[in-house]
């Protein structure tokens, strides 16, 4: 479970450009929840993810992960418990290293030993098995540099690598936005499979309303640092894309856009 409690976040403090993004922002994501976060540009979705991951510091409030207050923890410490897949497929993998080396790196995340340990035959067979589950033929290219792969192949690897070592929460940061429609569909199917198999508590930020409707058990719509819609379970299951579009339109009218 992850809890954001009474979060205040300001940008450009002490300047004429000072803005308050979050004032007493609260969110609880229960164990096993798969929550899709949607919302207009600048509504605070990425800032929220950055606060959770530790790349951004709040002016007030606490972030509690499975009962532990991680608010003061450095980003690299949080990375042992929080996996993040970024919009840019290049972010989650190392292009100058081979597929095998990348897999070994992910496998040994947070451990004290080097690469050699992860590349014995048993581990190589294990990586091959994991890669074959992606259905992209990567298991036969383990000596290839990751930089030579397509964006979709790299994003599939990033997803696999992020979820390889045990994590307490998975963050998907518009992870299909840079992919063509067919590849995005494939990555979403893989995402659904991985989340279900590993029973991962997941927060997915997306601008794709269909994915937000089709995946996960909860949907959150943000606007100007507030949650303006929060539906789970049966209520969420009944939602269709048009309902979300209506909500977007209503917000635009209220804001005079
Ligand atoms: N480093 C920063 N310095 C100043 N303002 C920032 C910074 N990062 C974000 N903001 C502001 O905070 C607000 C929220 O931005 P954020 O990127 O979190 O929104 P978002 O919902 O993720 O938007 P998008 O859908 O466009 O990615 C915006 O008004 C943005 O201009």
From TrEMBL:
SMART domains membership: AAA
Coiled coil: none
Entry keyword set: ATP-binding, Cell membrane, Membrane, Nucleotide-binding, Transport
Residue ranges annotated for the ABC transporter domain, each copy included: 2-249
Subcellular location: Cell membrane
SUPFAM superfamilies: P-loop containing nucleoside triphosphate hydrolases
GO molecular function: ATP binding
InterPro entries associated with the record: AAA+_ATPase, ABC_transporter-like_ATP-bd, ABC_transporter-like_CS, ABC_transporter_ATP-bind, P-loop_NTPase
Membrane protein topology class: Peripheral membrane protein
Pfam families: ABC_tran
Protein name: ATP-binding cassette domain-containing protein
């Amino acid at each position: 479970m992850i809890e954001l409690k009474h979060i205040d976040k300001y940008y450009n403090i002490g300047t004429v450009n000072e803005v308050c993004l979050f004032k007493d922002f609260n969110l609880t994501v229960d164990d096993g929840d798969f929550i899709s976060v949607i919302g207009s540009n600048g509504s605070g979705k990425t800032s929220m993810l950055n606060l959770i991951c530790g790349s951004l510091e709040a002016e007030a409030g606490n972030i509690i992960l499975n009962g532990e207050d991680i608010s003061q923890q450095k980003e690299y410490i949080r990375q042992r418990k929080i996996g993040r897949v970024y919009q840019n497929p290049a972010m989650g993998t190392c292009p100058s290293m081979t597929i095998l080396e990348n897999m070994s790196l992910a496998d040994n995340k947070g451990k004290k030993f080097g690469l050699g340990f992860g590349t014995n035959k048993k581990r190589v067979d294990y990586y091959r098995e994991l890669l074959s589950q992606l259905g992209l033929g990567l298991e036969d290219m383990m000596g290839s540099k990751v930089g030579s792969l397509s964006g979709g192949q790299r994003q599939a690897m990033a997803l696999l690598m992020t979820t390889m070592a045990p994590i307490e929460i998975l963050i998907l940061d518009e992870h299909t936005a840079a992919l063509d429609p067919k590849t995005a569909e494939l990555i979403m199917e893989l995402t659904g499979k991985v989340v279900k198999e590993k029973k991962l508590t997941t927060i997915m930020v997306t601008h794709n309303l269909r994915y937000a409707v089709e995946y996960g058990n909860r949907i959150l719509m943000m606007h100007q640092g507030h949650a303006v819609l929060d539906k789970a379970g049966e209520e969420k299951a009944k939602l269709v894309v048009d309902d979300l579009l209506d909500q977007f339109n209503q917000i635009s009218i209220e804001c005079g856009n």
